[in-house]
Design brief:
Largest interface: C-D, 84 and 83 residues
CATH superfamily of the largest domain in chain A: Malonyl-CoA decarboxylase, oligemerization domain
CATH class of the largest domain in chain A: Mainly Alpha
Number of helices of chain A: 21
Structural class of chain A: alpha+beta
CATH architecture of the largest domain in chain A: Up-down Bundle
Number of strands of chain A: 8
Order of helices and strands of chain A: HHHHHHHHHHEHHEEHEHEEHHHHEHEHH
Shape of chain A: globular
Radius of gyration of chain A: 27 Å
Oligomer: homotetramer
Strand content of chain A: 5-15%
Chain lengths: ~450, ~450, ~450, ~450
C-alpha cells in the first residue's frame, strides 16, 4: 500500500532527473562541510533531501582516514555556538525569566543536532546515520574531541529509537532470507555456522527467535533473542543446541530458556533495548504458550576468571585456602576440562567461589562485578543456579572456567527484585544458592 | 507479522494481571504530578510503560478544567532547572571548555522533555501525546505561561515526525472504512457531506487522494491532499466537484489539480508536512501517469476581502478610484453574486485588484499578505491564474469575493522559484498575469 | 507480492497492444458462437485468454434478449455429442471393458464444460461466469431447454467452489469500503439502511460478521452471517438491533446469536455454503471467546402463514377449533399487532400452532414444511424456542404472524441430531417445547 | 486477515475436541476403503472434513506397499458403475432425449471423482491429493489397471489448476526461506548447490526468478523459470552462471534469457503450466524493463545424441559420410571435449547435423524429435541459434554432445509461428540457421 518516499524516486530518476537534481550534482563537487552548511542554513526545505543525499553519497566515497578527518571537521564546525551562549548567559544574568531559560536550551543546542535531523531526510537516512556513527565510535577510541558529536548522535537516536516506536517480530523459517542472513551474521554469543544451523534454531516447534525492528529500518534487526522451550531448566549449552535432541511438543513445554541475546547495530551502542526485549518476549510467550511456568536464561559469567586472577594475586587470602589455590592452578593445564578426577574436586570449589563472586564481588558503583549479572539482576531477575562445566568452548573455559548461570524471571517478583536492587543493591538468589552460600562462607 | 507491544498485553491483562500492575493501580490513586515524578526519576525502566499508562488513564478521566490545571502544574514542575543552570553558568565562566558547553545543553533541557519521551512508552503513546497537546494549544490561548511546555512538545514532535519517518499512502475505495471516516471528518476545505460524496472523490479513475501517515499512528492520517485529473486547468471548484461531470480516462489526463489540502491532527499544529506532501504526490503522479503535463492547485484567496477592507478604509486612495469603491460597495448586497450585469463590471475590477494583492500586498516580513500564497510561492510554485466567481459558497464570497487562484508547480522551475522567493521575496507569475498587472498598474 | 495475470496486462495494453491482440480484435467482429468454437477447438492455448476475453466483451455488449438467444444457441451447439456417444455405446456393447467405461465418461461430457473451463482464462473469468449464470437462471424460468447448460455450470462451480478452496474472513470496520458496500447491498434478511447502520453491526465489540470468499473473487463475498454476542438467548429481533442497547463486554458474552445469513451471488444458486459457514464460524467464535456457551439463531418462520392458510381452508378442522379460527381472523385487521388485549389471547394460540407446525407439518419428502427449519435441523441444530411478536415488520407479520424461532447448535449434539434427522427425519426439540407440544396436542 | 479453515481448528482441538470428532476416532479404526464409502455416501456434509481427515491420516501411516494396495482397491471400488451405465444405455436407446444424454454423463462419472472432491475438504486437502497422485504415478509404472483412477485425478486437477486460478509471483532474496529451500530442491536443469548459489541466481539486479502458485498451496511453487538479463544472446551456460561475471545494470539489459524451467510437483505431471508461465513472464519483464528487446531461451537438446546413435546404426548413410562417422567416433573418448584440434573439425559437423536434426528429425506425429524443441516451437518461438560446446557438464556431453540452443520469443511473431506450427508443422528458424541448413543440405 505504501508509496516509496520522494527520495527514492529522486534516486531512481537518474539522468532523466530534475533540474534541481542536476544542480545538486554540481554541489557534490563542493566539499561535504560546505554542503552541510547549506543543509543546516536550510534555504528552503525543498532541497533538504537532495542535499542530504549528496552529502551521504560523498561520504560513502571517502576512505577510512578521510571519514575520520571529515568527522573531526564537522565536530568543530557544528559544535555549540560558544559566543551566542555567552551572550545569552549575560542576558540571563540580567533577566532570569523562564522564557530566557527556555531559550538557553535552544541556543545551547549543538548545531550538529539540526544537521543530523536533516541528514535523516535522505533515502535510508536513519540507516546511513547509524552507519556513520559506527565510524564515529571507532574514531572516538583515539580522538576524544569527537565526544561532543557522539553525544548529539546519542541524543537523537535515543529519541528516535524510543521504545514506543520499536516493533517486536518473530523470526522463523517463513521470514525473508534477506533478514535471516543478518541473524546469521549478527549472532554474537553462540555462533550460527550456516543455514542448516540457523534452521535448527528457528524451525522446530520448541525454538523461538524474536527481534526488535524500527519502522525506518524494516529489514535490519536491532537486537534479537533466541529461546529454547524445554521441560526443565537446562544446565549446559551443548544440550540446548544438540541437533539430535528430542523436540518438545509445544503443549509440553514448561520452561522458556533465553540462551542468546545479540545486539545487531554497532552504531546504536549505548541505546539499550535488551531489558525491554526480554520483558516483551516473556509476555509474548506467556500469551502463546499458557503452559510455560519458568522464564530463565542460560548465561555466561564473562568476568569470573578475571576476578579469580585478582583474588589469587592479592586480596584473596581470606577466601582462598592454599589447597584451593593449588587446585585452581591445575585448571590452567591444557585439557584440564577432560580430567574427570580433577573435576570431581574442582567443580564444587568453582561453584562455591562463583556464589561468592555473584553475591559479594562488586564494582565501584557497588553493583555486581559481573556485567551480565548487572544486566539481568538490574532487570528484576534472580540468580537461580550455577553450573560447572556448562560451556567448555575455549572462550567459555578462558573467561569463566566453563561456568554458566541461570537467571530466573518470575512474574510475581520482577518488580520487587528490580526495586530492591535499584534502591539497596540487594541481589535476589534462589534457596539452593542461599544454602550453598551459607555453607561456603561458614567454612 | 508484527507482535503487539508489551503495553498492549498489559492493557489486556486486566484483573488477571501482574503484581507490578496491581502495584501500579495503587499508584493511579496518587496524583498525576507525583506519578510523573516517578516516571522521570525512573527507578528502572521496567515500570516505565506501566506508570506512563497510569498517567494517561488518570489524565483521560479529568474534565477540561482539571486538564488545564494539570498542564499548568506540570509546566512548572518540569520547567528548566534554573538553579542547576545557574550553577553551571558559573562553571562555564570559569572554564569555558567545549565539554562544559555540551553539558550546558543537557542541563538546560527542560525536564518536561524526558517526561514526554517516557510518556511515549504507553500504549498508543504518540497518539495520546498528540491529543494532550491539543488540550495544551487550547489552554495556551488564555495562559501564556504554558508556552515553554508547548515548546517541549514541538521540539520532540519535530524530531519524531521528521519527514524521514513519514509514509505516503494512497487512499481509495479499497481503504479500510475506519480510515475513510476520518477523511470525511477531517476535510477542512470543501466539506465531504457523506459516504457517497467521499466515494465520488476517491473511486473514479480521474480522482486521487494521498495522505501521510506515521508508523506509530498507522490508522490516523496526518495530512491529506485531494487531486482531480483533468484535461485543462480548471477555473472554478463547482466544475471540479460536479457529480455528473464526464470522467477523464487516465491516459487522457494532462493536468493534476490539487484542490484541497487538510491537516488532520490539531495536536501537530506547527509541525509542517504540506510542502513535502505536495512534492511527493507530484512525483507519485508523474511516475504513475506519464501523460501529466501540469500540476496546479485550485486555491482560495482567504485574506483578500480583509485586505480590500483595509484598502477602502485607509491607504487605498491611490489604488481605488471613487467608482471602484462604489462598485465594490454593491458587492455587499445579498445575492450580488447572481447579478450578472454587476458581475460584468465587477469581475475585471476584482481580478485587477487581486493581481495587485498577490504581488504587492505584503506582511511585516515582506512576504505576501495572503497565507495560502505564502505557502505555495514559498514552496516554489508560480501564480498561474486568478478566477472571479470561482467559489460562490458563503465562505468563498465572504473571504475572497468568490475568487480562486491556480498555483502552478512546474518541475523545471520549482527550485529556482523557491530560491528567488527565499532570497529576494520574488514572486513568480505567469505571462498572462504579468500582462494583466502591467495593464492595471499603468491605469 | 503477486503479479497480475497475463490477461490483466493484455487488457491494459489497449491500443499499444500486441499483434495477436489486434488479430483478436478482428475476431470480435465474428459472432460469439463462432468465437466459442475457436476457443474450444483450441488451436493452441496461447490465444485462449485472448479469445475468452473477446467472447466476454461481446457478451457484455448484448442486451437481455440477445443474451438469452445467445445462451440458447450455445446450449445447442455445446450439448453432448449424441452421435459420438451412440458410436461409443456400440463399442461398449461389444467390449464392455473398464477402459471403455472410462472413455464413455469423457465422450459424454457436454462440450459446454470445456467451453466454460476455457472462458475461465479471461480476466476475472470466474466472476464473469458467475454473472453469466445469473442470466442463465433467469432465462431458465421460461426456457427449460437451457437446463442442460445450467447443469454444466453447476458441475464446474461445484468443483471450483469446493469448500477446500473457500476462505473465511471476518468483516469489520477495518475492512475496505469496497467490500462493505457489498455487504450493505447483499443483506437479504434484515436490511442495512446506510453506513451508520452497517457500522452498528460490525464495529461494537459484541458484533461480528463473517464471510466466505473465493481466492479468484477476492473482493466479492459469497455468503455472510451476522452475529450478535449476548448474555441470553434473545426472543425478538428489535432488541438485538436496537442502536441504544448496552454493549456487552467481550468477556461477558455467553451466547452467540446468528441473526442473519445472506447469500450474495445469485449466479451461485444451488452451490450451498451455509452449513459449512455456520460451523466454521462456531469454531472461530469458540476459539476467540472461550466464555461462549450457546450458539443459536434468531430465525424467521417464513412459511408459517402459508401453512395456516392451508389449515383454515381445508384440512385444519382437526387442529383448529372454531374459536381458534375466529381468533386468527382478527389477526388480519390492520394494526392487530398493537392490540394488546387480542395478543394476550392470540400469542399462546400462535405458539401452540407453531410447535405443531415445526414438528408435524411436512413436505412431500417428509421433511419440515418450513424451509429455514429444513436448513438448520438438517444441519444438526435443535429447535430451542418459539417467540410470538418477535418480528413485527410488515414482512414478519405477513409471512409468520410475527413469530421468530431459535435454533440451537450444541456442540456435543450436532452430529447426532444431524444423523437422526437424516436417517429418520427426527426433529430435535428442547424440553420446554416438548412440554408445550404435549400440552397442545393433549387438548 | 484470513481465518484458518474449520479443519485446522478441528486438527487443533486434540483431546478437548468434539463429540463427533471422537466418534470419528473410532472410524479411523475402520479401514480406509470403508471410510471412503462413508465419505462418498455422505450422509451429511457436516462430517465430510472429519472423515476426509481420518482417511488421510490413515493413508499417511501406510508403507509403500500398502499404499499401492490401497490405490488398487480404491480404483476398483470407485470405478464407473458398469451396471448403472448399461441400464441407462438401454434407456437412451429407447429415448435418445437430450435429458438422457446429459444424465449419461453424470451416471458414467467414475465414483472416484466424487471421492477426490470430498477428500479435498481435509486440511491441506489439495496438497495431500497431489502427493497421493505421486504414489499413484509410481504405481502406474507396474500396474496399468490404475490408469482409470489416474484419469480421475487428471480430470479434477485440470479443473482445479485451471490457469484462471494460478498466481505468478517473483521469487527473490526477500522471499521466505521456507519457499527458497523448495526452489533449491526442485531446480531440475542446472542444480543449485547451496544457499550462496541460490543467492547469486535471485539477488543481483540482472537475475529474476518467477513461479506459479495455487491459492490452496501458497507455499509450494508449481513451476518456476530462471531468467538472466544480459546485453546479448548468450551461447553457453557457464558464462551465464559464472559467479564473477559483471552484473548488468537494469537499464542496460536488452535480452532476457530463460535458462531453466523446473516443474516442482511430481503429482501434477501432465497438467501443463510451462507455456503460460513463459508468456506471463515475458509480459511481466516487458512491463518492468522497457529496454528489453529479445526474449530467448538457452536450452538443452536432450535427444540429439540419441538421434545420432540411430543415424549411425541404420538410416544415416545418406546424411553421414564415412569421415563424419569416423570423426563422431572420436567424440566417445574420455576428455574429447578438451581436445581443441578435434573440436575445430567436430564443432562445424555437429552444428550442421543439429540444424538438420531440429528441422528434419520427426516423431510419429510428425513433430520435432526433440522434446524441448516441441515445447518451444509449439509455443510460438523460433529456433534462433545452435551452439557447440555450450554445456560441457557430463550430462550435457552425454545427451547432446555439448550443444545448446536458443529459442527466440519475438512478440510480433509468436502467434503466427504457433499457428503455422500447429496447422502445418512448420518450424520457424532464423536467417543464419537457414543459411547453415542450405549449406549443409547442398553438400
Amino acid at each position: 500500500m505504501s508509496v516509496a518516499l520522494l527520495s527514492d524516486f529522486m534516486a531512481g530518476l537518474g539522468h532523466k532527473g530534475f533540474n534541481f537534481l542536476s544542480r545538486t550534482r554540481e554541489e557534490t563537487k563542493r566539499d561535504i562541510a560546505s554542503l552541510c552548511d547549506s543543509l543546516v542554513s536550510g534555504r528552503g526545505e525543498i532541497s533538504c533531501f537532495v542535499i542530504a543525499e549528496a552529502i551521504f553519497q560523498r561520504w560513502e566515497m571517502l576512505d577510512a582516514g578521510q571519514r575520520r578527518a571529515c568527522l573531526g571537521s564537522l565536530s568543530k564546525r557544528f559544535a555549540p555556538d560558544a559566543e551566542a551562549i555567552q551572550r545569552h548567559i549575560k542576558a540571563i544574568e540580567k533577566y532570569p525569566s523562564p522564557e530566557n531559560f527556555y531559550q538557553l536550551h535552544a541556543i545551547s543546542e549543538p548545531r550538529a543536532q539540526e544537521l543530523i535531523r536533516r541528514l535523516n531526510h535522505a533515502r535510508n537516512g536513519t540507516r546511513r546515520l547509524v552507519q556513520m556513527r559506527e565510524v564515529l565510535l571507532d574514531a572516538l577510541t583515539t580522538d576524544r574531541s569527537l565526544e561532543g558529536l557522539d553525544r548529539d548522535f546519542v541524543h537523537l537516536f535515543t529519541s528516535w529509537f524510543n521504545r514506543g516506536f520499536l516493533q517486536l517480530k518473530p523470526i522463523n523459517w517463513d521470514t525473508p532470507a534477506s533478514i535471516l542472513e543478518k541473524v546469521i551474521r549478527y549472532e554474537a554469543v553462540h555462533a550460527i555456522t550456516d543455514w542448516d544451523d540457523l534452521r535448527r534454531r528457528i524451525e522446530p516447534e520448541d525454538r523461538r527467535l524474536f527481534a526488535f525492528f524500527h519502522p525506518q529500518m524494516h529489514d535490519e534487526p536491532l537486537i534479537f533473542v533466541e529461546v529454547a522451550l524445554t521441560t526443565a531448566i537446562p544446565g549446559d549449552i551443548a544440550g540446548v543446541l544438540r541437533p539430535d535432541r528430542t523436540i518438545v511438543p509445544r503443549d509440553e513445554a514448561t520452561t522458556a530458556v533465553f540462551y542468546s541475546i545479540s545486539n545487531c547495530q554497532m552504531g546504536l551502542r549505548g541505546i539499550s533495548f535488551g531489558n525491554v526485549l526480554i520483558k516483551q518476549v516473556v509476555e509474548e510467550l506467556r500469551r502463546d504458550l499458557p503452559s510455560l511456568r519458568a522464564f530463565v536464561t542460560l548465561s555466561p559469567a564473562p568476568d569470573f576468571a578475571r576476578w579469580l586472577t585478582h583474588l589469587r594475586t592479592d586480596s584473596g587470602q581470606s577466601i582462598l585456602s592454599a589447597s584451593d589455590i593449588a587446585l585452581l592452578a591445575k585448571a590452567s593445564v591444557n585439557g584440564w576440562e577432560r580430567d574427570t578426577d580433577l573435576l570431581k574436586e574442582l567443580n564444587p570449589l568453582l561453584r562455591g567461589l562463583a556464589v561468592r563472586y555473584f553475591t559479594q564481588a562488586k564494582n565501584r558503583q557497588n553493583r555486581p562485578f559481573d556485567s551480565v549479572a548487572r544486566f539481568h539482576l538490574g532487570n528484576g531477575a534472580s540468580l537461580e543456579n550455577i553450573h560447572a562445566m556448562a560451556d567448555v568452548s575455549p572462550k567459555g573455559l578462558a573467561t569463566s572456567y566453563g561456568l554458566m548461570v541461570n537467571y530466573l524471571y518470575k512474574t510475581g517478583e520482577i518488580e520487587t527484585n528490580h526495586e530492591n536492587y535499584a534502591e539497596n543493591g540487594t541481589i535476589a538468589i534462589s534457596g539452593r544458592l542461599k544454602t550453598l552460600l551459607k555453607h561456603v562462607t561458614s567454612k
